[in-house]
Each structure stands twice: as C-alpha cells, then as structure tokens.
Write a structure and sequence with these properties.
Elements: H1 27-30, H2 48-58, H3 71-80, H4 87-90, H5 97-107, H6 120-134, H7 144-147, H8 150-153, E1 159-162, H9 173-183, H10 189-193, H11 200-205, E2 211-214, H12 234-246, E3 252-255, H13 262-272, E4 280-282, H14 290-300, E5 307-309, H15 317-329, E6 335-337, H16 344-357, E7 363-365, H17 373-385, E8 391-393, H18 400-411, E9 419-421, H19 429-464
Helix pairs in contact: 2-3, 5-6, 12-13, 13-14, 14-15, 15-16, 16-17, 17-18, 18-19
Length: about 475
C-alpha cells in the first residue's frame, strides 16, 4: 500500500469533526421526568403555602380570609385579590390602604388623596357614593342602589361633592296632556315632575358627614339643553331643608349655581338657625335678593358661622344693611364675601359702620358693588381703627382719585392690613403705589411675628413645669 507522499497537494485531507451540540440546549433532555405536558417541570412546582394562597385569592368572595393569615401572607393576598370584589365583602373587612389605592387608581384617572385626609379608603367610598348620586334618575333608578351602599360607607364618608342632579325622565307630551285632562288638576306638570333625589335618608345615615357641596343642574347636556334641567324646585328646597335637621355634624354647606331665590333661601335658613356645628355657608352664584339677605343676617347671629360667601347674587343696599346690622353684633364671623352684588354706597357705608365695632372679621370682599368715594371715606376710618382686618378687596369699583387719597390716609397708621386689592378702582397710580408700600411693610411685620412667636412659646414652656 502506497503511503502518502509528504507535500502531495492532490491528497484529500482527513474529514473535520462536527461540534457536539450543547445538551443543555435541549430542555427535553434536561428534564428528569418526561411528562405529556411540555410545560411541566419540577423547577416550577409551587410551594404548598403558595397553592393555599392562590386558593384563598380565587375563592375570596365566597370565603374571605385575611385576619387569620400571617402578616407576610396577608400582604400577598391583599396585593393580588381583585379590585372588582363586591363591596359587601371588602368594605368592613379590608382596611389596608394599598388595596383601596389600587381600587381608586384603577377606577379614576386623577386621584388626589390629599383632599381626603390622606385616606384612600375614604376617597373610594366618597367618590363611589357621589357617582351613584350624580347619575340617579328619580322614578327610574332603583333607590336600593343608594340604600344598599349606605351601611357600607357610612363610617368613611366625611364629605360629598355632587355637581349635578339628574331630573326625572319626561313622559310623552301627549300622554301628559291626557293625564292632566283626566285628573282635572291645575298644578303645573313641570314643578311636579322635575324634583330631584331626596337627600334626607342619606344625611340621617351618614353619622360623620361634615361637608356637603351641591349644584342642582346637568353637566354635558349638549343639544338636549333646557332651562328646566337646572331648576332647584321648591320641593327640592323643602327636602334639603329637612335633611339639615337630621345632619347635626355638618360643618360646611355649599349650594352654588342652583338658582336659589329669596323664598328658597328663607326655607333653608329657617332650618339652619341654631345649628350646632355649621361654620361655613356658601350660597354664591344664585338669585338671592334683599329678603334672602335679611334671613342670612338673622343666621349670622344664630349660628357659629365663620365663613359666609354670597358672591354673585342680587343683593342691594337694604340687604347689605341687614347683614351689616348683624355684623356689628357678631363675634364669630371671620370672612365675608359680597363680590358682584349691587350694594352701592348706602350698603357699603352700612358695612363700614359695622366694621368700626366688629373685632373678629379678618377678610371682606366688596369687589364689583358700584362703590365710590363716600364708601372709601368711611373705610379710611375703618383702616385707622380696626385692628382685626387683614384683607380688604374693593376692586372693580369707582373709588376715584379722592377716594384713593382717603384710603391712603387711613393706611398710613395701619399695621395689620396685609392684603388690599384696589385693581380697576380708579384710585390713581400714586395712591395705589404708596398703599402697596405700606402693605409690604405690614407683611414683613406679620412674617416676623410668625417667626418669633414659636420661640416665645418655647421660652415660656419651662415656667409651666
């Protein structure tokens, strides 16, 4: 047999060895047990405790178990149970804020928990109840929707902000005429049919309700707009007034943009007299005139009111005089807003005289009230004598140049006023500039007082021991 000659280029080289495949690349070879299920593996068999937790989570609605679990197991269950569980199961069982945070963020895009005292659970139940009331249609929606949720949320609801009330669905016009002709009644159909949800049952059951913000109207009505959609009927007013009697914890009541007139104001005020807790009343953007203002003046001294907002109503000089008369005897009110009324100089001077004796009011807003120089002359005396006021707003009036000089003279010795709005009051640039200089000096005095006051309290505290 002829041996290959060294250097023979025509001879074939020995075949190359093919690389052996990595055994770990084949998961079938790596499994110790070959099962029919290709996804099965010993490596992913969960612990028995995990299987138990999965069973608890999947059957939580039928058999809710939380308190008997270890803390680490409780955390896993609360992080994984569905936020769609019935409130009858979760309301009084789960207090974990993490779970209620998930409920809130999954339901609403904007969640500002600071407006709810930092409590996610309170936020959920307040907004859940608000949504039910906003879309409640009288004579159509089942009242049990509200009645069933009250026992679940009554311990957590502190504030309700309801910015719309839906009216009942109108019947066919021809059918309405037939019904009226058959009954022979002369009562208007609209007034009978347009009443809204009665809050009486709700306020009686919510034992911790402190704030109630209401607006009677319909949002986003589009091409279905009718003025009747924004009616606050007399029946609504009587129902709301009765609800006040049942809510002894109410501190803040706001009824804005609801076409509240004098008659309805008097009905509401009658039921707010001598209320044990009410400290803030907001009836802004309504139709209140002088008779309603007189009723409010009576309330000022028969309540614990601290903040009163009557902005954008139709109060004239007699109504302002009634409020001023009450203000002269009052010792609780700290803020009064009469912006965008028409009290004129007669009403403005009455309020000025009241402020010469009042020692508790710190803020007053009289912007847009057709005030002029006579009111400014009296307010210059107020600025010189009253040491409680820190904020006055006389913007959008006709104070004039001479009125501006009078106010500047009153401000020359004032050390407490820190805000004085004279925009669009025609007082002149010089007077406005000099008044602002006094305000800056007073603001610095107030700032220094806040800095040194805590230190003085700390220095006195050892003497108490």
């Amino acid at each position: 047999m002829q041996e290959p000659v060294s250097g023979d280029m025509n001879m074939a080289s020995p075949p190359l060895k093919t690389p052996v495949a990595n055994p770990a690349a084949n998961p079938r070879r790596m499994r110790r047990i070959i099962a029919e299920d290709p996804e099965w593996s010993l490596a992913i068999v969960p612990h028995l405790s995990e299987l138990c937790l999965q069973h608890i989570i999947s059957n939580f609605e039928k058999n809710p178990i939380v308190d008997r679990l270890l803390p680490e197991h409780q955390r896993k269950v609360l992080d994984r149970i569905s936020t769609g569980l019935p409130l009858t199961v979760t309301a009084n069982l789960i207090s974990d804020e993490g779970y209620w945070k998930r409920c809130c963020t999954e339901r609403w895009a904007v969640c500002d928990v600071s407006r709810y005292g930092g409590s996610w659970k309170r936020m959920f139940f307040e907004r859940h109840l608000e949504s039910i009331l906003k879309y409640f249609i009288p004579n159509t929606t089942d009242p049990n929707q509200v009645l069933e949720v009250i026992p679940l949320c009554k311990e957590y609801v502190r504030k309700l902000e309801i910015d719309q009330f839906l009216p009942p669905v109108k019947l066919d016009q021809n059918k309405e005429e037939d019904d009226m002709s058959d009954s022979g009644s002369d009562v208007g159909v609209d007034e009978l049919c347009m009443h809204h949800y009665d809050l009486g049952v709700l306020t009686a059951a919510l034992s911790h309700l402190e704030e109630l913000h209401l607006t009677y109207g319909v949002k986003d009505c589009g091409m279905n707009f009718e003025w009747s959609l924004f009616d606050f009927t007399y029946q609504d007013c009587c129902s709301l007034a009765d609800a006040f009697k049942k809510c002894h914890t109410l501190k803040v009541f706001k009824l804005c943009r609801s076409k509240v007139d004098d008659e309805k104001t008097r009905v509401l005020i009658r039921n707010l007299l001598d209320h044990p807790c009410l400290v803030e009343l907001d009836l802004s953007h309504n139709l209140i005139r002088d008779r309603g203002a007189r009723a409010i003046g009576k309330l000022i001294n028969r309540s614990k009111l601290e903040i009163l907002n009557l902005c954008n109503n139709r109060i004239r000089a007699p109504g302002a005089q009634a409020i001023a008369h009450a203000l002269g005897k009052n010792s609780t009110l700290t803020s009064l807003n009469l912006r965008i009324n028409c009290i004129e100089d007669e009403g403005g001077q009455a309020i000025g005289h009241a402020l010469l004796t009042n020692a508790t009011l710190t803020s007053i807003h009289l912007g847009g009230n057709e005030l002029s120089e006579p009111t400014a002359t009296l307010f210059s005396q107020v600025l010189a004598q009253n040491t409680a006021l820190t904020c006055i707003n006389l913007s959008c009036n006709h104070i004039g140049l001479d009125g501006g000089k009078q106010l500047l003279e009153g401000m020359s010795d004032n050390k407490t006023m820190t805000e004085f709005d004279l925009r669009l009051a025609e007082v002149g640039q010089e007077s406005e500039y000099l008044i602002n200089q006094v305000l800056k000096a007073n603001q610095e005095i107030a700032r220094l007082k806040t800095l040194y006051q805590p230190n003085s309290l700390e220095e006195k505290s050892p003497d108490l021991d």
